[in-house]
Design goal:
By secondary structure, this protein is an alpha/beta fold. The chain contains 16 helices and 13 strands. It has helices at 31-38, 97-109, 119-126, 132-143, 147-157, 160-184, 198-214, 216-224, 238-246, 289-303, 320-329, 349-355, 372-383, 399-420, 425-443, 449-457; strands spanning 9-12, 21-27, 39-41, 54-62, 67-77, 88-94, 113-114, 226-231, 264-270, 273-279, 307-313, 334-339, 361-363. Strands 3-4-5-6-2-1-7 form a 7-stranded mixed beta sheet. Strands 9-10-8-11-12-13 form a 6-stranded mixed beta sheet, sandwiched between helices. Helix 6 packs antiparallel against helix 7, helix 6 (160-184) runs antiparallel to helix 15 (425-443) and helix 14 (399-420) runs antiparallel to helix 15. The protein is flat, with a radius of gyration of 29 Å. The chain starts with 8 loop residues before the first strand and ends in a 6-residue tail after the last helix.
């Protein structure tokens, strides 16, 4: 039974704009009743008597005057076998905003209310169709920037993370139950409880949490991407590199220094890694007010960057401007790219290799597209301390999950300390309950209502 028993919601579930098809979703106790009232199928077919998971061709009409509003396909799903766990009707209209809005308004006039942001997914969670970790993965699927990021999000949506968390929760609950029984009945033999294996069981929980936490850096990278800033003095080839990596002319390229006046940000796929690559204004002293603003934006981008590609021009030699820029960025994760190797060289390669020995250094020609594969490999190697995981392991992508796991790790570490110090079982149980509570926050069993509301408020209206 739906937790929203008297409430039926509706919304446009496809992006606003003109397209071939637009979808309107209705969910709640009266969804089929409303659909039945508005839908006229061929040969008089209506919705109340049809089977679930069936699609029907016809028209949406205004029930006040029987005027046909749009030619549609109506899809019906009966509770509890729908995404929300409620009765659901989805209406595929033509994708123009006029027919979509007209059909939605008629639905709202006939008993539904406008859905709030993420309310369909929230109902799926509250009705037990998905847990909170799965609900959060819906946005990850929608916003996936690479195929690998999509794979991670789909794994979460299928419950792979929830299953892993469930395994740790089960072991924690069993251990807690055994210890509480041992406290309450100290003279009795507790079935399946062996005090000699306590250390082994504590270690299993701790290692399982630690292994999940180790994946958080990689997981967040696939979800959010790496903010990578291309810097250098004017006219070293920054915009050309951006255009080449994007395989399109996104930035203006001329021989005139200072052409780039603003930051340009795009997302590219580098070996499955989503790279938020930012072309910036060349760093130099200038009296041009607009260029000054661009240079200031460059410095701001650098402050928030995860990775810097520092470009030099082999045909100009290493200048004082280059050295000053390098001094300001040398402590950040950095790759040095010496560009224009297709031109006569004015740089002493041995000196350059020595000067930048603390960082990966590549000799490239953006114009001839030489060395760009090596540059992409260097980016991946700089981002990941180890090789990218292909093992199918669960990756932690949400900061909320990471923080809950960190708190769980602190709690199980205290349990381990109690065990090592031969403390009474009462000390174990207090911290084991904390472990369990933090793990349950991830899947939504103990999370506060305001956190749930905040999570779903980030969703789009139709989801």
């Amino acid at each position: 039974m739906s937790l929203y028993e008297e409430d039926t919601i509706a919304a446009i579930a496809t992006p606003l704009g003109t397209s071939g098809v637009g979808k309107i979703r209705i969910s709640g106790k009266n969804a089929i009743k409303i659909g039945h009232k508005l839908f006229r199928g061929i040969e008089g077919k209506r919705l109340k008597g049809v089977k679930g998971y069936t699609a029907h061709y016809g028209f949406v009409v205004d029930p006040e005057n029987e005027k046909e509003i749009d030619e549609v396909i109506a899809i019906l799903m009966r509770e509890p076998h729908s995404f929300t766990g409620e009765n659901v009707v989805e209406i595929d209209c033509h994708g123009g905003m006029v027919p979509l809005k007209k059909v939605l308004n008629i639905i709202l006039d006939n008993g539904a209310r406008m859905a709030e942001a993420g309310e369909f997914s929230k109902r799926a969670f509250l009705n037990g169709r998905i847990d909170l970790a799965q609900a959060e993965s819906i946005i990850e699927v929608i916003n996936a920037k690479t195929e690998k990021g999509l794979d991670v999000a789909v794994d979460h949506l299928k419950g792979k993370l929830s299953t892993k968390i469930g395994e740790i929760k089960d072991e924690t609950m069993k251990m807690l139950a055994h210890l509480e029984a041992a406290i309450d009945f100290p003279e009795d033999e507790i079935e399946n409880f062996n005090s000699d294996r306590l250390g082994e069981r504590i270690n299993f929980i701790k290692e399982s949490i630690e292994n999940l936490l180790k994946t958080s850096k990689e997981g967040k990278i696939y979800k959010e991407g790496i903010k990578t800033v291309i810097v250098g003095k004017p006219n070293v080839g920054k915009s050309s590199l951006l255009n080449t990596l994007l395989e399109e002319k996104r930035a203006i390229v001329t021989d005139i220094p200072g052409t780039t006046r603003d930051v340009i940000e795009e997302v590219i796929n580098v070996e499955g890694l989503p790279l938020k690559i930012i072309d910036t204004a060349g760093i130099r002293k200038t009296e041009d007010m607009i260029e000054k603003i661009g240079v200031e934006k460059t410095h701001n981008s650098l402050k928030n960057s995860d990775l810097v590609i520092f470009m030099l021009d082999v045909s100009q030699g290493l200048t004082e401007e280059d050295i000053n820029i390098y001094k300001s960025i040398k402590d950040k994760p950095l790759i040095v790219a010496v560009n224009k190797t297709d031109l006569p060289q004015k740089i002493d390669q041995a000196k350059i290799d020595e000067f930048f020995s603390d960082h990966p250094l590549l000799w490239i020609s953006v114009k001839n597209e030489e060395g760009l594969k090596d540059l992409k490999d260097a980016i991946v190697n700089e981002v990941f301390e180890e090789e990218i995981s292909d093992s199918g392991d669960v990756l932690i992508t949400q900061v909320r999950h990471e923080n809950a796991l960190k708190r769980a790790l602190e709690s199980i570490t205290r349990v381990e300390e109690s065990y090592n110090n031969n403390m009474a079982y009462d000390f174990y149980t207090i911290d084991l309950k904390d472990v369990l509570n933090n793990l349950q926050e991830i899947t939504g069993e103990t999370v506060d209502e305001d956190i749930i509301d905040r999570i779903f408020s980030d969703f789009c209206i139709g989801k």
